[in-house]
């Protein structure tokens, strides 16, 4: 299929380079972009406040159409964003020039989520322009902090998957690795979370209502995306035949580009997001007949593809829309990158040499079949050559060990929506099983486990298996997770293809999660150990000797206190609850899910409440338990956990006997910006997932970097955190992964555990009696039934161990010198968890892509 727009505009030529290498729009590659250190050690762009002032005023007038007399705060935000974007563009074009001129390999990161947060503060930090822009705005009577708050978080993700993708994109740019991020430009996010009487309510998340100054719409960069229809086979079978797909429906994918500047602006990459449009704006005949709604029905169906993040897939229509979304952005991205490669290198034989594609989870795994289709059907390549190119170009990151989270599609649905792709998948499967049979005898059971088609659950295509087969490398995201992949979900495939699974432990970008989120601590570290850690996170270890220095400890603790005061204002404004910064801020912020065990945390809170009531003289640390996170709209138990947390919090806050010693708050509408407020203020980081179920986690890294002490299970990256920070500087509790497996195999119920735990039994009885839900005593029965039965997430099994671990935290808090020593050592030893390290490993060991 051909591009719908064969004549790109001049902007697309300059930035996208469809038909030749880009050239600088103005200035040089380093014009306003190549930064050196400022006296404080933070980067400085070299542009003066006066220059920024002129730029902002120019944009206010000519881009926004306002004067200083008529401008509202939103206008000032827009003008500032446009002025900053202008400075990024020079580096953006210059980065592309270098990539073309030097023939550098590109990385293409496919992800259904990119949780990029606000871009104004992020861009200013990386460009070294924060201080100058702040000063420029001050001369105009405008506060940078105030207008920054007006920027909505880009509603392009929900959790760790999207935040990881954003960190990776920023690190790719910081390491000067040429890269594109590919995803969907959702017009509505997952939802805006409101709490109504403690219940989650989902509201539209219309983040684009006032426009997006960071993106460039590319109406000339458009590709046809086809669905349904039939496949015609012409000219025989095998390599001599040719398949022609006659689709029943066509959409158009339109590109929207956002520049992603790296640290110190040395390199700028592209986040390219696709929006869906109909070929025909309306059915004019139907409209003229008076069928005004019907005339727009086809358009509405097409444009629904990029309307909402994660449509509810409990219905058949929801499942089809989800599949259409995933194929839509995957196909558009593959068409885009293959066109770019063919323009520059003239043939596809060299595609693996110049392109590395990373599939972030199973969502874009249809790329295996789509790349094969493009090479075979559209470009006339033989099967074996196409398969060789595909399997040397694609790579796959697995993020889950839960079989239900490894996507699969019914054969009926896939065949109806993507008939040609189902044929290709069958062919891949046939070749795969044939090769296995050629290497020795096998069994039906083994073949069933290895097959791409699951015959046991209504004939479904296993997308994780498809991604595994089509990938050059398959990676886990923590050492434990990777080893469990080899032993569980991909056990048989790993036996047939040994060495294909590798580990790449996740990381986070320190630019956002330390430099931007915690400027107080960053300034203290620069002053104390010098600015070298800004470019080399491993140099943070130089702060370790100061963990016992009284002056440094006092200043470090003061930074935390000031951050807690700031967070306390947010809690008061959003929840109406007053908090004491002298209390221990105990934080669990993540997607609400039973395996992440927010329920365990709430049950321990109830037990602590009861213990304080029984004996107010006990030496429990005063605590503020802080929860935040969204539940999937259809996840009934997770929504019930949110309600329980809120009911418990309201009961505690209303009880004068404990309100100064214990509080529970649930902050609504968790997103990146809220995380940036919470993370620097956290004293304790709750990483308490059931062992063997959290692939990695990155919240643990963000919180640890800012000095929060981790209480957690030996799950995901907690294992590597213990190694890096030292087992004496982390609070570990609970069953290990083998013990969880043994417990499940033994069939021990939660009720049996409760019988041996008086403290937990009392908590359960309080919930059964409706002490926290007097209006509906049976409200939490579904939660109790789940944990008292099979207790699949070991909430009961780990309760007593968790309680004891929390009392160790109390004891540590009671010794301030010991507490701050452990906190500082956490910050000092988190350098290894930089996403720069992760990306260097990907580049060296999977992608073969350049860095720096």
TrEMBL record:
Its EC number is 2.4.1.1. Its cofactor is pyridoxal 5'-phosphate. It catalyses: [(1->4)-alpha-D-glucosyl](n) + phosphate = [(1->4)-alpha-D-glucosyl](n-1) + alpha-D-glucose 1-phosphate. This is Alpha-1,4 glucan phosphorylase. Residues 36-46 have a biased composition (Low complexity). Belongs to the glycogen phosphorylase family. PANTHER family: GLYCOGEN PHOSPHORYLASE (PTHR11468), GLYCOGEN PHOSPHORYLASE, LIVER FORM (PTHR11468:SF3). Gene3D superfamilies: Glycogen Phosphorylase B (3.40.50.2000). Residues 1-48 are annotated as: Disordered. The modification N6-(pyridoxal phosphate)lysine is found at residue 702. It comes from Chelatococcus reniformis.
């Amino acid at each position: 299929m051909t591009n719908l727009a064969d004549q790109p505009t001049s902007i697309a030529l300059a930035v996208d380079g469809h038909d030749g290498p880009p050239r600088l729009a103005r200035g040089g590659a380093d014009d306003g972009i190549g930064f050196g250190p400022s006296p404080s050690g933070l980067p400085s762009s070299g542009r003066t406040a006066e220059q920024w002032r002129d730029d902002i005023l120019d944009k206010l007038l000519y881009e926004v159409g306002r004067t200083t007399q008529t401008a509202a705060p939103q206008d000032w935000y827009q003008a500032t964003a446009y002025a900053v974007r202008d400075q990024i563009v020079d580096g953006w074009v210059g980065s592309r020039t270098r990539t073309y001129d030097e023939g550098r390999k590109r990385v293409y990161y496919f992800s259904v989520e990119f949780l990029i947060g606000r871009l104004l503060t992020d861009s200013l930090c990386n460009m070294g322009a924060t201080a100058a822009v702040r000063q420029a705005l001050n001369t105009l009577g405008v506060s940078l902090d105030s207008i920054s708050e007006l920027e909505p978080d880009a509603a392009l993700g929900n959790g760790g998957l999207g935040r990881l993708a954003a960190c990776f994109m920023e690190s790719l740019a910081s390491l000067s690795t040429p890269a594109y991020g590919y995803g969907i430009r959702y017009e509505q996010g997952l939802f805006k979370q409101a709490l109504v009487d403690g219940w989650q309510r989902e509201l539209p998340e219309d983040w684009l209502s006032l426009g997006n100054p960071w993106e460039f719409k590319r109406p000339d960069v458009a590709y046809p995306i086809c669905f349904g229809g039939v496949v015609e086979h012409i000219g025989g079978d095998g390599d001599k035949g040719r398949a022609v797909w006659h689709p029943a429906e066509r959409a158009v994918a339109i590109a929207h580009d956002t520049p992603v500047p790296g640290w110190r602006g040395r390199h700028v990459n592209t986040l390219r997001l696709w929006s869906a449009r109909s070929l025909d704006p309306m059915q004019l005949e139907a409209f003229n007949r008076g069928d005004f709604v019907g005339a727009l029905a086809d358009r509405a169906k097409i444009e629904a593809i990029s309307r909402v993040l994660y449509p509810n897939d409990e219905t058949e229509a929801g499942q089809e829309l989800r599949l259409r979304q995933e194929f839509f952005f995957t196909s558009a991205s593959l068409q885009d990158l293959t066109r770019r490669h063919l323009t520059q290198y003239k043939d596809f034989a060299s595609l693996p040499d110049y392109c590395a594609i990373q599939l972030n989870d199973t969502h874009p795994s249809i790329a295996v079949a789509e790349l094969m289709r493009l090479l075979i059907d559209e470009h006339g390549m033989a099967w074996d050559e196409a398969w060789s190119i595909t399997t040397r170009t694609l790579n796959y990151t697995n993020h889950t060990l839960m079989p239900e989270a490894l996507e699969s599609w019914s054969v009926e649905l896939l065949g109806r929506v993507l008939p040609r792709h189902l044929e290709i998948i069958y062919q891949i499967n046939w070749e795969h099983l044939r090769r296995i049979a050629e290497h020795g005898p096998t069994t039906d059971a083994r073949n069933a486990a290895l097959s791409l088609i699951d015959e046991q659950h209504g004939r479904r295509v296993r997308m994780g298996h498809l991604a595994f087969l089509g990938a050059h490398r398959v990676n886990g995201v923590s050492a434990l997770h990777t080893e469990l992949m080899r032993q569980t979900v991909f056990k048989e495939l790993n036996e047939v293809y040994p060495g294909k699974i590798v580990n790449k432990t996740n990381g986070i970008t320190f630019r956002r999660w330390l430099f931007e989120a915690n400027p107080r601590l960053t300034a203290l570290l620069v002053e104390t150990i010098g600015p070298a850690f800004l470019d080399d996170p491993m140099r943070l270890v130089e702060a370790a000797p100061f963990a016992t220095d009284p002056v440094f400890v006092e200043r470090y603790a003061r930074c935390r206190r000031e951050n807690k005061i700031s967070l306390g204002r947010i809690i008061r404004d959003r929840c109406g609850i007053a908090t004491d910064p002298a209390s221990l801020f105990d934080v669990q912020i993540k997607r609400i899910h039973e395996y992440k065990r927010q329920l365990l945390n709430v049950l321990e809170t109830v037990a602590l409440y009861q213990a304080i009531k029984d004996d107010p003289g006990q030496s429990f640390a005063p605590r503020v338990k802080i929860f935040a996170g969204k539940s999937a709209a259809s996840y009934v138990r997770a929504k019930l956990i949110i309600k329980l947390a809120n009911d418990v919090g309201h009961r505690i806050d209303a009880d004068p006997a404990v309100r100064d010693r214990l509080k529970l708050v649930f902050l609504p509408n968790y997103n990146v910006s809220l995380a940036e407020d919470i993370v620097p203020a956290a004293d304790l980081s709750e990483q308490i997932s059931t062992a063997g179920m959290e692939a990695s986690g990155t919240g643990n890294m963000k919180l640890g970097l800012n000095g929060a002490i981790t209480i957690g299970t030996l799950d995901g990256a907690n294992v590597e955190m213990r190694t890096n920070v030292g087992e004496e500087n982390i609070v570990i509790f609970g069953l290990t992964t083998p013990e969880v497996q043994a417990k499940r195999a033994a069939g021990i119920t939660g009720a049996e555990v409760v019988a041996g735990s008086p403290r937990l039994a009392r908590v359960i009885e309080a919930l059964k009696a409706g002490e926290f839900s007097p209006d509906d005593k049976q409200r939490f029965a579904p939660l109790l039934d789940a944990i008292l039965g099979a207790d699949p997430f070991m909430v009961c099994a780990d309760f007593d161990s968790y309680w004891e671990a929390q009392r160790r935290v109390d004891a540590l808090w009671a010794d301030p010198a010991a507490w701050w020593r452990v906190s500082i050592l956490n910050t000092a030893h988190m350098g290894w968890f930089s996403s720069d390290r992760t990306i260097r490993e990907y580049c060296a060991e999977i992608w073969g892509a350049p860095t720096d």
